[in-house]
Design brief:
The protein is mostly beta strands. The protein has a single domain, classed as Beta Barrel (Acetoacetate decarboxylase-like), CATH 2.40.400. Helices cover 10% and strands 52% of the residues. Strands 1, 2, 3, 4, 5, 6, 7, 8, 9, 10, 11, 12, 13 and 14 form a 14-stranded mixed β-sheet that branches. The longest helix is centred in the middle third of the chain and has 9 residues. It is globular, with a radius of gyration of 16 Å. This is DUF2071 domain-containing protein.
């Protein structure tokens, strides 16, 4: 899998910047995550397993086209739990099982436009001095909360990430179900700068609340300081 965008987005719909993002992943059996996949999409598998994991990031000035951020949105943290997907056209992407953010206006917008499971939460995310820290209240589907689900530190940069880092970070789209059809939202960004990272404190209830059971520490912990992201129009995936 290449670490650079295989297809350009063409017509630009949305631009933003993802910053200070830790990526944690566990291997899971494909059949354990096949149920949540939208029609026409199956789990993406490498070395006999698929992957699941939470990703926290600072969503910086999202807005339409290249004209900058929307009023009142600014920069806000987002925590998502993602599955890895591939469709019948061979396009690899992710399927979100949850997206938590503290911007109330962003919740109905994501649900209406893309059918995403974005929820409001009192989430606070910092990554100062090489120490990622996710705090606040992340609300589960039944009202459960995680008070401090992640604390870690950042190590040296990976000059040649290779597999499985490319599998985990070179995801060039989003598969989702909206308005009765499965669609693929293409994304484009430069190769992510990646660092090794370590999670000192981690509560797995974020993944469990998303409907996937994992055990033990994550098999992979990476950190990306930031990358500009462009999104194009949705295309059919089923």
């Amino acid at each position: 899998m290449a670490g650079t965008t295989p297809r350009r987005v063409g017509r630009l719909l949305l631009s933003q910047y993802w910053r200070d993002g830790p990526l944690l992943h566990w291997p899971v059996r494909a059949r354990a995550v096949a149920g949540p996949m939208p029609p026409g999409v199956v789990p993406d598998v490498c070395d006999g397993t698929s992957r699941v994991g939470p990703v926290a990031l600072g969503m910086e000035r999202p807005g339409p086209g290249s004209g900058g951020g929307l009023p009142f949105f600014g920069t806000f943290p987002e925590v998502n739990v993602r599955l890895f997907s591939v469709d019948g056209q061979g396009r690899r992407g992710v399927v979100f099982r949850s997206l938590d953010c503290p911007r109330l206006a962003a919740v109905p917008a994501a649900r209406a436009a893309l059918g995403l499971l974005r929820r409001w939460s009192d989430t606070r995310w910092t990554a100062e001095y090489g120490a990622p820290h996710l705090a606040g209240r992340v609300r589960g589907p039944a009202g459960g909360r995680a008070g401090r689900p992640l604390r870690g530190d950042v190590g040296p940069r990976l000059e040649r990430p290779g597999l499985p880092a490319d599998l985990l970070t070179a995801r060039w789209g989003l598969h989702t179900r909206t308005r009765g059809r499965t669609v693929y939202l293409r994304v484009e960004h430069p190769r992510r700068p990646l660092h090794r990272a370590h999670a000192h404190e981690l509560r797995q209830n974020l993944v469990r609340a998303a409907g996937v059971e994992v055990a033990g520490p994550p098999a992979s912990v990476l950190f990306c300081p930031g990358v500009p992201v462009r999104s194009g129009p949705c295309t059919p995936a089923d």
